[in-house]
Write a structure and sequence with these properties.
By secondary structure, this protein is an alpha/beta fold. It has one domain: TIM Barrel, CATH 3.20.20. The protein has 9 helices and 10 strands. It has helices at 15-27, 62-70, 90-103, 118-123, 131-147, 183-192, 206-215, 235-249, 264-279, and strands at residues 2-6, 32-37, 77-84, 108-113, 151-154, 159-163, 175-179, 195-198, 225-230, 253-257. The chain has an 8-stranded parallel beta barrel, surrounded by 6 helices. α6 (183-192) links the parallel β7 and β8. The longest helix has 17 residues, at 131-147. It is globular.
């Protein structure tokens, strides 16, 4: 089992706080850290049916943040969770991800999703209505841009004429999909992703997802699944039970979070406490299993 913790959804105040947070996670034995990938924020109250931190911002940019952290850490991995890929230019994401992978020594995984925020799509000049189809085309193009110096690719959303990053990435950059559990979404993850970042109540759907993997010619035992665990008031025994349930279902990576009512300092203490409490009750992944992803 691999253990991670995300940065607070709203950006930390400066470089020192960002550095201290990541270094503390690495020293506490965490395997990975993540940060949200929204670009823009909106005023509180804009979406009364959604949790305010999901859209207000400000958000840490994953490429800038992780490029900085690559220089002050040595082991912990980085993941965008999630980058709203269809709202962004594919060539630019390919470049930023490749550079981050290079300077971090291959410690970056690209976590992507489609988002719900139509206003953000409009502000970034992209059509939200085609986001699913665009995502699929983007993933195919990203993998070519990372493996070939120059690419010729003409699709519904892209026209690349013998152009690219001018070098290949040393090692493949894993692409994780952050999704819910709708049928068509799970099939897309099974076909295209290198890992599944679950959203919501996912445990009842893991067996169905694993069958989709088999249908796609993939081995569920080799496919990583990341589940989120909120270290709330239930305490260590509740946290350990959740971790055991996840592992029994086939979850390979756990992102530990803290209740939103805690300050960033309190949240850091809580996730470190939770990792210490549950790590002894979950088996470590054997060498080579689900590696190269986190």
């Amino acid at each position: 089992m691999q253990f991670g913790a995300g940065f607070p959804l709203q950006a930390l105040p400066g470089a020192a706080a960002i550095r201290d947070y990541a270094v503390a996670l690495e020293q506490a034995g965490f395997d990975f850290t993540s940060t949200a990938g929204h670009t823009l924020g909106q005023p509180a109250g804009t979406y009364p049916d959604r949790a305010t931190p999901q859209y207000t911002g400000p958000f840490n940019d994953p490429f800038v943040t992780f490029a900085y952290l690559a220089g002050v850490t040595s082991r912990i991995r980085f993941m965008s969770a999630i980058l709203v890929l269809p709202a962004l230019p594919t060539g630019l994401v390919a470049k930023q991800a490749a550079e981050l992978s290079l300077i971090s020594g291959g410690r970056f995984d690209l976590g992507v999703g489609v988002s719900w925020n139509a206003a953000e799509y409009r502000a970034l000049g992209m059509d939200m209505r085609t986001r699913g189809a665009r995502l699929e085309e983007q993933v195919a193009l990203l993998r070519r841009l990372w493996s070939e110096p120059y690419v010729t690719f003409k699709g519904r959303f892209h026209d690349f004429d013998n152009i690219g990053l001018a070098r290949a990435v040393a090692a493949p950059i894993p692409i994780w999909f952050g999704t819910g559990t709708d049928e068509h979404v799970l099939r897309r993850v099974a076909r295209l992703a290198d890992g599944w970042m679950t959203i919501g109540d996912f445990l009842p759907h893991v067996a169905r997802f694993q069958q989709h993997l088999r249908d796609a010619g993939r081995d569920p035992a080799e496919f990583p699944i990341r589940g989120s665990l909120v270290a709330g008031d239930g305490g260590p025994e509740a946290w350990r039970k959740t971790a055991r349930d996840y592992q029994a279902a086939g979850v390979t990576h756990i992102t530990i979070g803290a209740p939103p009512t805690l300050t960033p300092e309190q949240a850091l203490d809580r996730v470190i406490e939770a990792r210490a409490a549950i790590s002894g009750s979950a088996r470590a992944l054997p060498p080579g299993q689900a590696q190269g992803r986190l």
